[in-house]
Write a structure and sequence with these properties.
Order of helices and strands: HHHHHHHHHHHHHHHH
Number of helices: 16
Oligomer: single chain
Largest sheet: none
Helix content: over 70%
Shape: globular
Number of strands: 0
Structural class: mainly alpha
Distance between the termini: 50 Å
């Protein structure tokens, strides 16, 4: 017992020696909190202070104008189309990359990361070059009465482009960690491809999938650069909520601009709360061997 206690004492002493001094730890904590306060809490508080500065009636009046409601609807439409499409793409790309070996696999991974490396403004200019009146496909589209740039389809395309990596990038590591053993066991037990996905793969990736969808939705609703280039900023028609905030601010309608910005801030807060909940579930959830046989039996 004495030897054990002495070994424990030496171990705790070594651990204490390896630990940073108390002033370093508290200094790092204070620096982190100060940075968050300066660049996150203070701007967020300023948005809501300015938005509610003239009272609740002025706030509700600012967010219920026809132009603001139109911007909210268009933002929801763009996200409502982009997120499901990116969900399908992310699952397909994640399945292909994590489960199979094929030529061009690394190229596909690189292309998935492309929106992270390319400026959104450049992405918007690419769509103008492709689908604008003087673009590669512009004359053909004009002949057939199809309008993409400076209309809703262009906004949706730009939103899809800037947000499509998030789902794939979240579920690829999860699928790689899961391996193929459970899915192969399910096939041996007689499950077809759809049954294997719904009853084996999906339960194992569901939290990573939800996490990716949340990030994708937040990016889709908050995108500014690419949408600004392809939308034309037509008030009441092609203005998303971020563009509407910019127009109001440039017109010196500060209270209305901050009121509209508060809607985006609320979206960010809700996304952060949901993200934290999902992260806790992801931390607690692990791939357990035998799930396939238990699920299908």
């Amino acid at each position: 017992m004495a030897g054990s206690s002495s070994r424990n004492h030496r171990t705790s002493g070594a651990a204490a020696h390896l630990t940073e001094p108390r002033w370093v730890r508290w200094g790092l904590i204070a620096l982190t909190l100060g940075f968050l306060g300066l660049f996150l809490i203070v701007p967020l508080a300023a948005v809501f202070t300015e938005a509610l500065g003239r009272g609740w009636s002025a706030y509700t009046g600012a967010i219920s104008t026809p132009d603001t409601l139109s911007a909210v609807r268009l933002t929801l439409v763009a996200a409502g189309v982009a997120v499901p499409l990116n969900l399908v793409f992310g699952v397909a790309a994640g399945w292909a990359i994590a489960k199979f070996q094929f030529p061009g696999k690394n190229v596909l991974l690189t292309l998935i990361d492309l929106p992270f490396a390319v400026s959104p403004v450049i992405a918007g200019l690419i769509f103008v070059l492709l689908f604008g009146r003087q673009g590669w496909f512009g004359p053909w589209l004009a002949e057939h009465g199809i309008r993409i740039v400076f209309s809703v389809p262009g906004i949706i395309l730009a939103t899809i482009f800037v947000s499509f990596p998030f789902v794939a990038r979240e579920i690829i590591p999860v699928m790689q960690a899961m391996g193929r053993d459970e899915e192969e066991a399910a096939r041996v037990l007689g499950a077809n491809g759809l049954q294997t996905f719904l009853r084996v793969t999906l339960p194992n990736i569901k939290w990573g999938l939800l996490y990716g969808v949340l990030l994708c939705n937040a990016r889709a609703m908050g995108e500014f650069g690419a949408v600004s280039v392809v939308s034309g900023k037509i008030r009441g028609e092609t203005n998303t909520l971020p563009l509407h905030v910019e127009i109001l601010y440039n017109e010196y309608q500060f209270q209305a601009a901050f009121a509209a910005a508060s809607l985006l801030a609320l979206l960010a807060i809700v996304t952060l709360v949901l993200k934290t909940i999902v992260e806790r579930h992801v931390g607690r959830t692990t791939v357990q061997p035998g799930t396939a046989t238990d699920t299908l039996s």
